[in-house]
Specification:
- The chain is of the alpha+beta class.
- It has a single domain, classed as Alpha-Beta Plaits (2-Layer Sandwich).
- It contains 2 helices and 5 strands.
- It has a 5-stranded mixed sheet with strand order 4-1-3-2-5.
- The longest helix has 14 residues.
- The radius of gyration is 14 Å and the shape is globular.
Length: about 100
């Protein structure tokens, strides 16, 4: 059984570009799959792996005091929901399109 973890945290991450490499290496070492988005405004994404690896991933993220209190939810699957791991840099983790009339 695989654990799927949807997570986010709005917080200021001015160094989000420097976080990308070490985070990806750590998650790959745990065989985590899915997508995480990093931006100046925080982190957002959905990842999957065995339960122990997901918990280690959450612990790793929350070692950064800016990510303490990370919001997350779990679901479960027999089949892998993601093919690979992506840790992407974005301008925004949640795009808010404001339409002007």
């Amino acid at each position: 059984m695989l654990t799927i973890c949807a997570l986010y945290k709005f917080t200021r991450l001015d160094d989000f570009e420097e976080i990308q490499g070490p985070l990806k290496i750590f998650l790959e070492s745990l065989n985590i799959r899915g997508t995480l988005l990093l931006a100046k405004e925080g982190v957002n994404g959905t990842i999957s792996g065995d339960n122990d690896s997901i918990m280690k991933s959450l612990d790793y993220l929350q070692k950064d005091e800016r990510l303490v209190g990370l919001e997350y939810k779990f679901s479960y699957s027999e089949k892998p929901p993601f093919k690979r791991l992506k840790v992407k840099l974005k301008k925004e983790i949640v795009t808010l399109r404001c339409i002007k009339y």
